[in-house]
Structures are given as C-alpha cells and as structure tokens.
Amino acid sequence: MDEEKRRGFQDTGMDYEQESGQVEEINAVEIPEDEDLEFIVDLDEDYRSNEKKKNEALAADPDKEEDAGEGGNGAKSFWREIVGDLIFLLVVFALTLLFVKFVAQRTVVVGSSMAPTLMDGDNLVVDKISYHFREPERFDIIVFPFDITEETYYIKRIIGLPGETVRIDDNGNIYINEVLLEESYGAEVILDPGIAYGGITLGDDQYFVMGDNRNHSSDSRTVAVGLIERERLLGRAIFKIYPFSSFGRIGD
User: Fold this and answer.
1) Alpha carbons 94 and 169: distance in angstroms, whole number
2) Distances (CA, A) of 233 to 63, 129, 132, 243
C-alpha cells in the first residue's frame, strides 16, 4: 500500500501488517445500543432537577440549611446544643452560689422577738456585701449565728456601737455614754435591763443588740447572747419580700 493508505488506516485505529497483507483492528471500542445509557442520562437530569428544587427551597427558607446536611452533622449539632445548655446551667449554678455566699440571701423570720417590725414567717433579703465596704450603723437590723445552737441565726437591731457604754435604768430608758438614746423601735417599755443595768462597755469590735419586742427577746442583755463581735455579723436585713402586703424596704 502506498503512504496515503497507511495514513488512512492509522487514523481509523487500524494497523497495517505489511508482511501478511492483513488489517488488524486495535483499540477499537464498540458501544452497543443499550437502555442503560438512557437510564444514566435520565438519572443525571433528575439529580439536577432535585438540586435545583433544593436550592430554591433553601433560598425561600435559609433556616432549613442545617437540616439539609448529612445525618452526622445533625447529630453533632444536637450534642453541641446539649453541651452548651449544660455549660450554661453550670455557670448559672456557680453564680447563684457565689451570690448567696457573698452578696445576698433569703432569710425567713422565726418567732416574734422583732415584732412589730418583723413578724413570724416574714421572708427577708439579707445584704451580705455592704459591711465589706462600710461599718455597721446604729439601728441596723443584723443577722448573726447563735453560738450555742448550730445552724441557728438571730436577727436583732444594733443599739450600741464599739467603744460605747450602754446602760438601761429601772424605767427602761437606754443610755449611750450616759446620754439618753432617742428611739421609737421598742414595742414596749423594757422591764428587764439584764447585764446592761449597771452599764456595760463594748470592746473595739463589739455591738450591743436588742429585739424590738423588748420583753420577749433574747439579746445582748442576756449572758447566753451577750455582745456580738464584728466578724460574726452575717449581714443586714434590708428588704421584705413576703408577705406581699408588706413588700418593700424594711423601715420604709
């Protein structure tokens, strides 16, 4: 064969065997007419159609984008939410403990030693932080632990301040450094002056406290309670939250 024919065979994937004079087909691929081909084409078109519909749905409602992901992503998102909620609850719990320990807490009055200012069952808020920045003042209503009985707290009013001499006479009058104390918190005239009858001088960090219900109160007039050291003051009662009829700041 001449050169042209050789070139023609090579272009069509045919190899020319010069010696045998035969033509051998190589690299020839026959593509039969098969229904599978049509199925593949149809599937590709369906995929495009579904993708288009999904994109249109996401454009209409972007919030659904998370749900369009794989199931694994949904599970991860679920556990992330659970962990996030747990961390939030732990933080709230820790802040609550810190608040109760150092800032304020709810206290329920038991008994009538502070009547008529505070009554049995009154729910109060006790400020535990202000005494870290200022000294207790006369007539503050304070809360302190009772040494003899564990987990028992007393609530009384400050009458005498550190360094002062408190004396109560036979008529129930209270004197501070021999000056008559003008006050109107007492529910009645004091009948028993207790250890303050002859006068008692307070130390540099001691307070003399009394209940407003003077004849029905165990307070600094008794040896069992005595004078209260500064470090024993838990805080001061500032707000009444229950009953709602007397809701408000104490003393207002």
Assistant:
1) 51
2) 55, 11, 11, 25
Q: Are residues 41 and 34 in contact, defined by beta-carbon separation less than 8 angstroms?
A: no
Which segments in the chain show pLDDT lower than 50? 1-2, 4-32, 34-43, 65-68
The single residue of 5, 64, 156, 218 carrying the catalytic annotation is 156
Tell me the residue length of the chain. 252
Question: Are 25 and 13 spatial neighbours (Cβ–Cβ below 8 Å)?
Answer: yes
Q: Around Cβ 60, how many Cβ atoms within 10 Å?
A: 8
Q: Is 64 a catalytic residue?
A: no
What single DSSP character describes residue 1? -
Write the DSSP symbol of residue 16: E
Given 113, 217, 220, 240, the catalytic residue: 113
Q: Token pair for residue 5?
A: 């024919």
pLDDT for res 55: 66
Question: Residue 14, Cβ neighbours under 10 Å: how many?
Answer: 16
- Nearest by Cα to 10 from 27, 34, 29, 32: 27
* Exposed/middle/buried for residue 244 (C-beta within 10 Å: 0-12, 13-18, 19+): exposed
113 is catalytic: yes
